[in-house]
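In the laboratory, one determines a bound structure by crystallizing the protein with its ligand and collecting diffraction data. In a computational setting the workflow is compressed into a single prediction: the sequence and the ligand go in, and a structural description comes out. We illustrate the idea with S-adenosylmethionine.
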Amino acid sequence: MTPVTEPTWDPRQYLRHADHRTRPFRDLLARIDDLPDADADASADTDAPGLPDAPGRPGPRIADLGCGAGNVTVLLADRWPTARITGYDTSPQMLAEAAAHARPPLLDFAEADAATWTPPETYGLIVSTSALQWIPGHADCFPRWLDALAPGGALAFQVPGNFTAPSHTLLADLRASDRWRARLHGTGDRTASVLEPTDYLTRLRDLGCTADVWETTYLQTLQGEDAVLDWVKGTALRPVLTALADDPEARDAFVAEYRDLLREAYPPGPYGTVFPFRRIFAVARKEK
Ligand SMILES: C[S@@+](CC[C@H](N)C(=O)[O-])C[C@H]1O[C@@H](n2cnc3c(N)ncnc32)[C@H](O)[C@@H]1O
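The predicted complex, in structure-token form:
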């Protein structure tokens, strides 16, 4: 198998389009109703020093896999103010940015690879947004994550479903072109591991839970010059930018070629540049 370069993330670039990037998470949350609270006794056994001696039961235990800069993880804390929430990510850059959102002792962030993460306790919600596409075979993790849910708990995620859009096909073609193929060997297309909605539905139902699966195409209207390029610099282009980081001349040449292709594919209109973005959502519930 071709070795794959881990992309270096740039939280500031990623957050330049925070509104559009946060919307699917809000839409996912809107489909998650009540969560089971953490078991009071079990929660007392966890290694969360300084948990408040709040009267009554503790709120749900929540894990956010691939939490990024933490700006969406805080939305979980707003929604379930008594929940104990941990955002997990592999990127030191993203985790450093997320640290500013920590609300000890209820909301914290930690380094963990979601591909191998073994839930250390029972959860009311395991959630992930815009992250599982970076984990080939992520659906094979579903049994492990569902096992860790309390009865009535939810596994909820959102992944992009836009890999046949020009933004991605042009990038893939350019990367595979004679000029760039050898140079970019090892920056493989990690984002091709997303399943179709029906496949997610089947996988989740076969594991014995209920599943609400849907897709939405957002007609995102971006502002500014080369707006689509600016968007992908925060996400899909990261592996290439990482691979060429030590050669600014080559990096700029690649970006210029890609920019020209994007300008043709996404011409600006009178209201901005329309960048259609398909996303896939799933909320699976474990039986009570
Ligand atoms: C596009 S960002 C999404 C961040 C956040 N969930 C959001 O919606 O804004 C993808 C994040 O997934 C993280 N990621 C990628 N592979 C991962 C893995 N195997 N385990 C944990 N995090 C991962 C990246 O470091 C990055 O922060």
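The first helix runs from residue 11 to 14. Keep in mind that any predicted model is a hypothesis to be tested, not a measurement.
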